[in-house]
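ingest -> validate -> predict -> emit
validate: passed (alphabet ok, no gaps, 448 aa)
predict: started
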Amino acid sequence: MASLRSSAAYRIAFAYAAVFALGIALLGVAVFYAMHASFVRELDASLAEEASALQEEYRTGGDAELAEAIAKREAVDTRDLSGYGVFAASGERLYGNLGRIAPQLGFQDLSVKDRAGQPDTGRAIGIDLGHGKRLLVATDLEPVEQIDRTVITLFVAGFAGVVLLGLIAALVLGGYLRRRLETLRLSAETIIAGNISHRMPVSARDDEFDRLAGTLNTMLERIDQLLENLRQISGDVAHDLRTPLTRLRNQLDAGQSILEPATPSQTVIARAVAQVDEILALFAAILRISEIESGQIARRFEQVNLSELVGEIAESYAPAIEENGRTLLWQVEPGISARVDRDLIAQALVNLIENGQRHTPAGSKITVTLQRSDQAAVVQVADNGPGVPETEWPRIARRFVRLDRSRSTNGHGLGLNLVSAVAHLHRGELTFADNRPGLTVAIIFPAA
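emit:
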């Protein structure tokens, strides 16, 4: 039921069914009152005709003729008329079987007795006979009420059927809309996960959903072309520059080897070699990220024991972290495995550990944890350093982004970008949290 309430498709379908049912209800009420008014008008016409006939009897024969006519009608009562009464100006009944006092002129509702002598609602007409006398002709409304009850019963049964049919139609329509939208959503999630070549399904019906899917596919084709051009440009630049830089480094090594040790020239060349190495490392990182983002590297996925991998990396890096004046701790839940690229996961974890070391002061503590949470494997690297403001979290995983206080440290702003690319390649996500103090970075991806 909660899923029905949260589904826009079902809400639209049920809203349509509710509006349709409300329209049927209003139409039924209008028809009922129109029909009831029509029957009452016919009854009023019959009463007026009867009163007019009795008034004519009074005009031609006086009270004697009128009393005789009323007595005959009360004895026969073939027209389902409930009663008659003639009243004096004082309100006293002169003759007839109606006991009403001082009747009103015109049509009116009053209490009468049915054939069984039980009180019932009736319809009557009062007319002036002259000389202060009034004639009252009344009839039982039971026939009209019986028709009303029959119509209401039929309407309630029909309305219940319409509501039931509307609910069934709403469920069918909501389910259809939800399936079509779910197909688009799942396709979008597949694309978000890194499969940029995936496209929205398009059927032969060519309805609104198919035209929307076609438009989205055209947009995706354009985005794919732009991304491919961007990857090609960045990859080509990095690849084309790496070759001459490698030759330059080799020439600098050769020049350094023929110089006397500890000379100023050799010191300058050594610095140049270090800078060239840094540029080559940058180009290697760019090429690696481009390879990961292309999604083709996913073909190297295999079942990996993450518990063993995280434990091995933490244990091997602990001595180097301690040499730099920091402490590396780790807590690994055993038995967690997943289908991943082992080298990429290892590289992502190493990047997070090195980030924690690079951006924390001496004496800081870095903690690596691996645990299972809701069928997902969560790798966390937390530190108790200065941390990162929450407003900067959406930016720090972008390519070449470096915060102001990180400008003085080594790096090119590609470490977290590579980790983010690895997470998305594995259909996971990279998240950040405040460690109070410090920063917690987590990779969450499906576990086996």
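Residues 8-76 form the longest helix (69 residues).
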